[in-house]
């Protein structure tokens, strides 16, 4: 997997795993892929995210908002520390809870 690659995998009927980079280079494509795969899911595991930046954080927040708008809120698991720190600096960390 290249540094700019990401992958979305259904790990259970109601769970997704996102791995690879969630960065400016991948965020738009990741947003589309995660939203498409998230139908019927209850959680998204980010343990495999190797790299993230503000665009990756925005992608995750947009996925959460989209799911909530559809009436199917998602829980996040294993949010990378760097993403948590960035969310805290941006004062949006409560949205990742």
Describe this structure in words.
This protein has 97 residues and is an alpha/beta fold. It has three helices and four strands, in the order E-E-H-E-H-E-H. It has helices at 27-37, 54-69, 81-89, and strands at residues 6-12, 15-22, 43-52, 75-77. Strands 1-2-3-4 form a four-stranded mixed β-sheet, with helices on one face. Helix 1 (27-37) packs parallel to helix 2. The longest helix is centred in the middle third of the chain and has 16 residues, at 54-69. The chain is globular.
Radius of gyration: 12 Å
Number of helices: 3
User: What is the beta-strand fraction?
Assistant: 25-35%
- Fraction of residues in helices? 25-40%
How would you sum up the global shape? globular
Residue stretches low in confidence (pLDDT < 50, at least 5 long) are: none
Largest sheet: 4 strands, mixed
How much is the average pLDDT?
93
